[in-house]
Every structure is written in C-alpha cells, then in structure tokens.
Amino acid sequence: MRVLLTSFALASHYNCLVPLGWALAAAGHEVRVASQPSLTDAITASGLTAVPVGTDPELEEVRERPAAAMGPPQVHEDRDEPVTWEQALDFDLVIAPLLLAATNNTEMVDELVAFARSWQPDLVIWEPFTLAGAIAAEACGAVHVRALWGLDVLGSARRALLDLRARQPKAHWEDPVAEWLTLTLARFSRPYTEEVTTGRLTIDTTMPASLRLPVGVPVVGMRTLPYNGRSVMPDWLAEPPTRPRVCFTLGGTGGDFLHDWALGPAELVSAVAELDVEVVATLDAAQRARLGEVPDNVRIVDFVPMNLLMPTCAAVVHHGGAGTFSAALLNGVPQLMVANTWDTPVKAKRLADQGAGIYIPPPKLDADGFRDAVASLVHDPGPRAAADRLRKEMLAEPTPAELVPRLERLVAEHRGA
C-alpha cells in the first residue's frame, strides 16, 4: 500500500514518525513524507523520501502577536480546578488561529491535498498538530491515523469542549476548531466529521498506558524507538562511567522556554556538579560562558544522541521534551523535569505520581532544592524501581514492525469508506 506521513516543519515532531516509516518501508510499502520545505533535509537524513509542500509556517511572526505573548495556552490537565466552558472555549479560540491554522497554512494544505489526490495514498499518518494530513486524507479517500508524540491534550481538550458545549444554550455553541476545519474542508467539497480531529485510530509512540490521558478514542500503543536525526557515537561513550552519570539537556526546543526559570541552565549545572556524579550537559555558547570554569566532573557537549547516552545514566534533568522523556522511559532512567509549557507539566506530574521522577516548576527553582532532588533520584532506589516498572510497560507495547499488520488490516477494512 501507499503510505503518506505528514508533519509540519519541526523536526522534534517529525522524529516520532520515523521508526514507523522505516517499519512500513521494510514491510514493502511505498512511503512518502510530506512537510513544508524547511524539513526536507531532516526527512531525507532519516532515509525516507521527502515531498515538500507549501510554504514554511511563520511561527516567529505568530509568536509576536499579542494573543501569543503569554506563550502556549495552559492545557486543561494543568489546572487545579475542573475546566469551565469559558476556559474550554478560550483554549480553542487560541489554538485555532495561533497553532492549527498557523502550522497548517493555506499553501501547505492546498499543495498537500493536490499531492494526495495525485499520488492516492491508502493511509495517511499525521502528528497531532498537522491536521493538514487529516484534511488531505479526507480529500482523497484515504484512511488516516494520528501518531502522538506526547500526552493527548488536544484530544482531551476536544472532548471537554464538546461535553461542556452540550450544556450551553444552542445560541452559544461556538466551536472554533470545527469551524476552521469545516471551512477548509469545504474548499475540497468534503464535510467535517469528528474523525478529522482524531483519525480512525490513534497511535501513541511515547507513552505507556499508565501515563496516558483518558480521552475516549481508539488508541494503540507502540514501543518508542528514540530517533535523534543524524548522529555519531562519541569516543567517550564507549567507556562506562566511573560514577553515577546525570544528563542535563534542553533538547532541540527547550531553550525557547526559559523565560520564567528562576535559575538558568548554567547555575543548575553548577549546583548538580557539587554532587559526586558525572554531569553530561548540552549547553549553547552563551550558557557555557555563564558557567565560567567548567568543573572536572562536567562534560559540555553540543549534542549527544539520547538513545546512546540514556542507557548509561543514573538520572536525567530536562524540560519535558518528547525525545528525552521517551528515551528515559525506555531505559528506566528517573527524571527531574523542569517543565513549563504545553503538556510538559502534566507529564512531569503524572511521572512523579508514578514515583519515577520529580517535577519542579521553573519559578520555584533554587540551587539547594535542585541539587537535593537530583541526589534523591541518583541514590534512592525507589525512583529507579518505579522507572524500571514503566520501562517494562513500554517494552510490552508492540514494536513499529509489529504494528504494521494492524495498519494493513485497518486500511483493508476502511479504505474508501
């Protein structure tokens, strides 16, 4: 069969699709990856065939708009009280124009639909922000599937809005996301249905079942296979660490979310370096300069593949990014998450509830508390045992190769329905 993978132009979102793309190609299926032009190099580096469509999303311009000044909206699970109708509607009023319409700009949608109608894929797999994939599938009659790279906060928000809207007078049945999708689909003579927002099936590529949100849609798990793009194993990783190794990383996007951190990365690295541990830290030039003289037990690197580093670690400190989070889960590594955006605080809380990590909100950072938290993850057997339990849960999920027959059956049952 023909399979089209779709992601907007952000490598950290695309990376979750790569192992599934490999598995489908290895099973003999034709695989193409469609995205905006700036992702082309990342796609071809992964060994898959790129189809550039449309123009790149002007995310920097979107971030400058007044409504975006406070950053991404607070997801419902990050609230202490049950979400209200006003909050659910406000969430959709923000994400419809500033997230979904911005990442799925008109040029991308039009060219993706044109390609899909020309190539006629049987299956379209799209990451949660790239609703252009669902639109293209509807336009050409393909079966389509979502592939999650984090908690399904969009699916949860969708369910909350529909549940709360049903209790409102019909005169106030606003639905910004559905209205945008309805108008977009109408350009291709297709009606809106709820399946456009969720797909025929959802694949969770990073979370074991015990960490997922109860969203009420069909979900199948997949064992995470961390993919970091082009990578080379450094010589020093061939030698086992002589003392507990702690990874400190902000991933590929964490540096964008430091605005409310009470302490910066350099100060935190200095604090944890006071422990009898080895620290491997990914810092940029400015952050390294703030560190001053690098302690003997600190190794500064520009990049290191998480799938290679994580098996050697006793703990990891990070901002909650999908790649680091899932690599730590797969290797049973306790996590300290300094998380402040989108689903990351919720992931951190759910991980802490399982006993496999610690969550520190960025404004509450202080050197002593941070250092003590890292020490507890390294030396307390409880977090390691809890992390190992989640690791075993993740390993019980089907591999991408084992998931391929499920997708083949799905297409056979529903293609052209």
Automatic annotation (TrEMBL):
Protein's UniProt keywords contain Iron: no
InterPro entries linked to this entry: EryCIII-like_C, EryCIII-like_N, Glycosyl_450act, Glycosyltransferase_28, UDP_glucos_trans
Domain Erythromycin biosynthesis protein CIII-like C-terminal: 267-410
Keywords: Antibiotic biosynthesis, Glycosyltransferase, Transferase
Family statement: Belongs to the glycosyltransferase 28 family.
PANTHER family assigned: STEROL 3-BETA-GLUCOSYLTRANSFERASE (PTHR48050), STEROL 3-BETA-GLUCOSYLTRANSFERASE UGT80A2 (PTHR48050:SF13)
Name of the protein in its database record: Activator-dependent family glycosyltransferase
Originating species: Nonomuraea bangladeshensis
